[in-house]
Amino acid sequence: MKRFFYYIKLTRPINCLITALVVLVGGIISSSQNTIEINLILASIVAAIVAASGNVINDLFDIEIDKIAHPDRPVANGNLKIIEAKIFYIVLIIIAISISLILSYQLLIITLFALTLLYFYSFILKKIPLFGNTIIAFLTALAFLFGGIAVDNISGAVIPAIFAFLINLIRELVKDAEDYEGDKTYDVNTIPIKYGMQRTKQIALAISIILIVFTFYPFIERIYKIEYFVVVMIFVNPILIYSLKKLFENNDKKNFQQISSILKLDMIFGLIAIYLGK
Fold first, then answer.
1. Domains along the sequence of the chain with CATH
2. Contact at 8 Å (CB) between 208 and 246?
3. What pLDDT digit, counting tens, does each position of 57-71 carry?
4. In terms of CB atoms within 10 Å, which end of the chain has fewer, N or C?
């Protein structure tokens, strides 16, 4: 039973659940139906599995770094053997490709693209400052579009995809700040390492301002209803502002961990706002 828990922990299930919800919301927003179609459910499962595979391969490439930055991770602390994690990674890939093959040619192509991008991200691309962060944020946005394609209406998922891209780009910068010590030890070239914490925070602030301004657009243009605006003004933007306040308080690792969790929660409120405003 413990080993099963280690495998689940390796996938970072909360992140996978959020990915699945992103696809579901993207599909629901884009669909003209009032029911959740089976294709959309299967597409959300594929996305969650792809996200899980990305987390597994990332941990395999980051074993030494995680011994310092994330010593609780199953491969880094030895609870799972490297070969076990590799086999698990291959199984996840096979499952994701098999389900997407059943769904549609378009979804299969995107699944293969995402799997490939996640591999090369873990291998080399994340070492390029900001570029690696942008890729992860892009993949999150792609999950919205994935849901739109699953219900044959990609255009309805564009605005949620932009929201997802921006908030996850902020979170990626915070996670880089959180991993500063481990990345510094192993010469990982992130924004905090190359330009310093203060510049990283300034970039996060600039993106946050863009995001806050953008949240007004769907309501002003009457794309979403008043329910969207209410949730955004009561929860989404205040939580984002609070996370920025904490970001500039100190450079403590625990502080960055808390901010990362807060931003994850904010993402969920954003999904709720979009869903209610449809």
1. 2-277 (1.10.357.140)
2. no
3. 999 988 877 777 778
4. N
